[in-house]
Amino acid sequence: MTFTALLLFYTAIAVFTWRRLLQYLRFFQQEGYNHKRFYRWLYDQRLLDTRFTLILSSLWFALSVTPSYVIKIGFLFIASASLAFISFTKELDPRTTGKVRLVMTSRAQKLAFVTQLLFMTVASLTFYYSTAGATSPLSGFGTLITVALVQALPAFLMVSNFLLRPFESWVQESFKSDALKRLHSCAPYTVGITGSYGKTGAKAALGELLTQCLGPTFWPPQGINTVMGITRSIREGLNQHHRYAVIEMGAYNVGSIKRLCDFTPPQAALVTSVGIMHLERFGSAENVYRAKSELAESVPSDGILVCNGDSHNARRMATEHPKETTLLYGLQPGLGNLDVYATEISFTAAGTTFNLHYNGLKLKVVTPLLGRPALLNILGAYTMACALGAEPHYAAACLANLKPVDNRLVYDKQPKVSYLRDAYNSNPIGFNAALEVLKAIPASRRILMTPGMIELGEAQYEENKSAAITAASVADLAIIVGETNREPLLAGLKEGGYSDERTVVVDSRDEAFNYIRENGETGDLVLLENDLGDLHEGRVRF
Amino acid sequence: MQSEKRLRIAVMFGGRSVEHEISVITALQLMLAADPERYEIIPVYVAPDGRWYTGKSLLSREFYRLFPKQAHSLTEVTLLPKPGTGGLTVLTPPSVLFKGAPASTRIGSTIPIDIFLPVFHGQYGEDGCIQGLFELAQVPYTGSDMTASALSMNKYVCKSVLKEHGLPVLPGVLISKTAAQKDLVGVTEKILLTPELSRFPLFIKPCNLGSSIGISRVESRGDLPGALAKVFRYDESAIVEPCISDIMEINVSVRDNRGSIEASVVEIPVSETGVLSYEEKYLRDGGKKNGPSQGMASLTRVINPTDLDSTLRDNAVELAKQAFDILGCSGVARMDFIVDLKTGILYCNELNALPGSCAFYLWARSEPRILYTDLIDTMIETAIERFAKSLSLERNIELRALKR
To answer: In angstroms, what separates the C-alpha of A394 from chain B's closest C-alpha?
Structure first.
């Protein structure tokens, strides 16, 4: 009987840890399986278990005060049942719930399995030694250790990750060499794209443009910009018929673009901007410049370099690493020579209208994409397409058929409340551009819904505040989501002349949508500016 | 015909065209309507990736919501391009876990088929591709043959052939994507210098697509480049026509009843915007909001309108039969006309070698009334007759040159 009860009890613990483990894994995955960042997040959250600890301590207390053997067994059953109960009611499955869900990749599966195995082994061993010779099936010491082990679940996850690392890198290396083989046999003309922002949008626009103007083009979907991501998409998507490949290259530190260039050597490069994003990762603005320059350096001298002339450092790159064809594009002709630029820009519900200037031509263009950042991406893609031999008139005509990238300033017209969706990674330039579009599109009431911007280092407070000052002159109502930037946003709105009744403060995105559902009126236009992942929105509690 | 000697009919549908789903809807309707006493229906679903599957679950509409997750429960088959196989060849049997698969589904075994009934719309199914495969495999199949299908699918070729025979068609200019990519300004000039196309609005259509995808109505010179770029996303060649401002569409279904050509009543599709968009033509669902789409059978339309000028109607019916004959069609087709309401002139617009819902809703209202079940009977009988004729042709294949 004791054995059955204990077996049941440990099965309940196993079920519980599995459910809990998956939740940790979700955040571990969001942090890119990076130990340092995951630890930082755990520390910031002060994330400790309460549910399991509470049940176990109660059990220990109950067992120690009960002399009767039968009642002790009874308590074990009750504890097992409550563990199983909270496992399925409180420990929600992160694969099916939450904003950014856990994706059970083969790596995640292995990691979860190994962690669970490791945990159960350690838990069983400690149980065996702590109960040897004891009268109660669960000693005080045993309880303490089991609770400690559950509290240490993230550590188990990290240890398993460490153990699996040689295997993972072996798998990755074999995938990489497979992708390289395919790349060499297909040999597409490769265009590398980098920039502090705008590279994903520019990649999609260039991929579309080359496909329509010049021939089959391959580009990794969404924001894939790492060696592993590119490896995977090459293995899944690149074929013999692709004439061009457009590769987005992410700079995470000095040298990372160089590695990507060695992997997929570019014959042409598009630099969308060199800013001060992720400054804390690089140390200095000069390092950011050096990191991005690795792309221009990798392009052979008879290649093509296209840079955003509005960005001071991108312009500098064009001067310092000139190629046979070096072109500049931008929206600010005042900053110096531009080969491609736009004038008479206007935003409407149908998209952006502008005059495109290239090589003495002036072409009227209508594109469904909205906002200045999107416009810059289009200009960059257009310049590159023309440099690669696309007919300028035809390429300009193709701009009318570009599709907006999800959540990057997409106008979503609805019979009641319409939306401007700009939930993707906000930055100061994007925020202001979105406000400009919010102002331009007809609406009876304009609403801003935002948690503010993050990852801006020391400037975060000031940048959020100044964006809120601008917002005060555009939006009739502001909904501030979460605590992260609440203070600077409220301060900015107030400085912009907002009265208290025009601001709504909520704790989560869901709450904000509820507010809109209940208070939205026909003709309202809501700008959804930025959306913080689960990592930053609110606190996680176990 | 006795029930144990039922004909085994492979109904083929889906396919690699944008009208994939419409084809599934047409096929589901047809398989329900076919006489179970006379035919044993073997559904053959061509998935969007071009794989062919067969299995009883393909008869249920629900199944397609789960596809391709449930693909392993089906038998993957193919038709080999050589005469005498006697049916479909099994490529991959259903997964062993799936119960109820017939024992005859080993790799390489044959699922016997007596006649093929393709119900594809658009590319690779309505344009002669699959018909070419049927010819190679020397199997009987319903509907238009390879040449007639290809002729009617290409809007420019179809227009030229009908024009050659004196049928009224709208003027049009053919533009190739290659030409536009090289010199868009030159192509624009070419369009605007064509006498009949010198005035806006114009109409741009992809040359080889059956649905309304890629179509634009161009109001001014400034819209022309964007519209051309749009159409060339979908097709290698496009046709530019004048856009008649006040139009009415008239459709007539025509069929081949063992050699004699018959026409149905006419219908007038009703549309608010002047052009039937893809959504309007196929996804709009009559009065039944939120109900499952019934394809062409659910379009807002007036069938056999009583207030239609009888000369116009008779003219349309006559021209439709002629066009069917000129292009060499068979089975059930639908000819779409455009009437310029200002001049009263009727133009042949396009011929659908395999119309949505097989135009059964028109035959059901015709005089004499022909039910879907009977329509299918005739399609099959006509096909068998045509196949028998083709077999009786003398094939003088003497291999001598190499045997000397």
So the answer is: 6
Q: What count of CB pairs under 8 Å joins A to B?
A: 35
Contact in structure between A262 and A247 (CB atoms under 8 Å): no
A364 and chain B in contact, CB less than 8 A: yes
User: E strands, B185-320, where?
Assistant: 202-206, 216-218, 237-242, 247-257, 260-269, 301-303
What is the DSSP secondary structure assignment for residue B113, as one 8-state letter?
Answer: -
- For B164-178, what is each residue's pLDDT tens digit? 999 999 999 999 999
Does pLDDT of A58 surpass 80? yes
Asked if A394 and B181 come within 8 Å (Cβ–Cβ), the reply is: yes
Whether the pLDDT of residue A85 is over 80: the answer is: yes
Q: Which two tokens stand for residue A398?
A: 């193709």
Q: Average model confidence (pLDDT) for chain B? A: 87
pLDDT for the residue B138: 94
Whether the ω angle into residue B368 lies within 30 degrees of 0, i.e. cis, is yes
Compute CA distances A10 → A55, A79, A478, whole Å.
Answer: 14, 10, 51
List CB contacts of A72: < 8 A, sequence separation 6 or more: A63, A66, A136, A137
Q: What is the pLDDT, as a whole number, of residue A283? A: 74
Q: How far apart are the C-alpha atoms of B135 and B146, rounded to whole Å?
A: 8
What is residue B230's predicted lDDT score, i.e. its pLDDT? 93
User: Which among A418, A398, A395 is positioned nearest to A340, based on CA atoms?
Assistant: A395
pLDDT, tens digit, for every residue of A322-349?
999 999 999 998 888 999 999 999 999 8
pLDDT over threshold 90, residue B114: yes
pTM of the model: 0.79
Among B182, B183, B225, whose Cβ lies nearest the Cβ of A397?
B225
Query: Residue B229: its chain A contacts at CB < 8 A?
Result: 212, 394, 397-398, 400-401
* Residue A177 pLDDT greater than 80, yes or no: yes
**Residues near B51 by beta carbon (within 8 Å), at least 6 away in sequence:** B71, B76
Sorted by sequence, the CB contacts under 8 Å of residue A506 that are 6+ apart come out as A479, A480, A481, A482, A512, A515
Which residue has better confidence, A483 or B159? B159
pLDDT exceeds 80 at position A532: no
Supply the pLDDT for residue B2: 47
Q: What tokens does B114 get?
A: 């007596």
pLDDT surpasses 50 at A288:
yes
Closest chain A CA to residue B228 = A397
- In angstroms, the separation between the Cα of residue B139 and the nearest Cα of chain A is 34
Among A513, A506, A516, residue whose Cα is nearest residue A538: A506
Residues of chain B contacting residue A214, judged by C-beta atoms under 8 Å apart: 181
* Predicted confidence (pLDDT) per residue in B266-291, tens digit: 998 876 554 554 444 444 433 333 44
What ipTM was assigned to the predicted interfaces of this complex? 0.77
Q: Look-up: residue for tokens 């070729």?
A: B157
Q: What mean pLDDT is reported for chain A?
A: 88
Angle A495-A496-A499 (CA atoms, 0-180°, nearest 5)?
85
d(CA A433, CA A48): 41
pLDDT of the residue at B279: 46
Instruction: Tell me the residue length of chain B.
Output: 404
The stretch B131-158 carries a mean pLDDT of 95
Helix (H, G, I), strand (E, B) or coil at A119: helix
CA–CA distance, B208 with B153 (Å, rounded to integer): 6
Q: Which residues of B touch A394 (CB under 8 A)?
A: 180-181, 184, 225, 229
Q: What is each CA distance from B316 to A179, A351, B83, B93, in whole angstroms?
A: 59, 43, 40, 49
Of A214, A364, A400, the CB nearest to B229: A400
Task: Using a CB–CB cutoff of 8 Å, tell me whether B181 touches chain A.
Answer: yes
> Does an H or E element contain B25, and which?
helix B20-33
Residue B222 at interface with chain A, using a CB cutoff of 8 Å: yes
Task: Give the separation between CA A7 and CA A76, rounded to whole angstroms.
Answer: 10
